[in-house]
Amino acid sequence: MSSQAIDVHAELEDAKLSSFHWRLGAIMGLLTLFDGYDTFNPAYVIHYVAGPWGLKAGQAGLLISSGLVGFLLGAALHGVAADRFGRRGTLLAGLWITSVFTLLTALLANSFASFCVLRLLTGMGLGVLLPLATTYINELAPRRVANTFSLWGVALGWAGGGTLAGVVGVFATPSLGWQSLYWIGSFSFVLLPVMHLMLPESPKFLVLKGRTAEIRDMLSKLRPERADIYATATIAAADRQVSGNLILELLQPRYRRTTIAIWVTAFLSLFCIFGLSGWIPTVMIQRGETFATSFGFGALMQIMSFVGGLVLGHLVDRFGRSRGLLGLWWGIGGCAVLTLVFLNDHLVNVTCVAAAGFFVIGAQFVLNNFTATAYDTNVRATAVGMELGVGRVGAILGPFVAGALQQSYQSALPMFISIGCAALVAGSVILFANRASAETTTERLAVSTAG
Fold it and tell me: What is the CATH number of the domain that holds 426?
């Protein structure tokens, strides 16, 4: 008789990408597609309702920000639920909330107040989807391709959803009205039965809860070549659980510097992303672009964001210099936005908006992965949720501040200055975070087998 100790975390990290990985990645991609679509479509509503509802620029900014207030609440609170009760059920609850209130927005939003209330409630569901999908896919991803695999799942879906919002804005809203954005968004109901049937619990959460039968089944699907070993494994409970306030755990000495750097960076990054994305169609019309072209700028940003995130994720996976590369990405993106202050022609507009998507939003995708890998399993969902929750404060302020600046100065140039400078500062602050590290040895689970 001989025995060997098998580390469940190592088993996941050393796995080859299997069909089961790709199936779960596809589910997360579809989930975040609806998240990205619903997050960005208010930008295409402003053009239609500003006049009929008598909105000033500051109010129009609130129209975008209302959903982000709900997102902040959902993102901040969901992580505690997911770390205590599981990733699967929390994801399903988030999708149900998003689907129901998206449909109600199409049916009942007929004024500024009703639209904002329904968007706030929708945002509470959206606040679950992106951060928890990021946590889920990072807990499955083989370590050598963690960023790339996560980006092909979560980021591709989110960017694809934002692009789809632009396409619907250009081609559907002129004839069918802005409500068509939300009728199409309510197709997320179709995804619900698929997730109920096919989405398993996260294996690392199962480790924390000592659910051995489910762990064996999950590992066998992820690494079928080792199924015989897993079938006879004796699985112990996880060594360390966090009791008490999970959010305060993020501010303990071992995490504090990283947590503060990530929160400040996320705040500034999402200030830039939502300030620019929320206003880019309207601002480009003011800069002389056509209606179709101006709405197309939003789709261009989202397409380039995925490409930029994928390139950055590949570089991080290959070279491991995540903080420096993230800082470089935000720095270049900030310079691209500041270029719009000094130059205005079609080629400059296209190039700078594409660069803003490629670098600024692309860096945010990788920051989500950086956050997931910087913390241990027992606080990971809380950490990602708080990163995006704090970031959503910046996202809420971005469209509002951009609108207020335009209202005060009757120009988009102060908006570009504030967003460009915020991106440059974000690129500097992330350098203060500690390097993301793997699960600590004391929190790894030993799986003993006899053979």
Answer: 1.20.1250.20
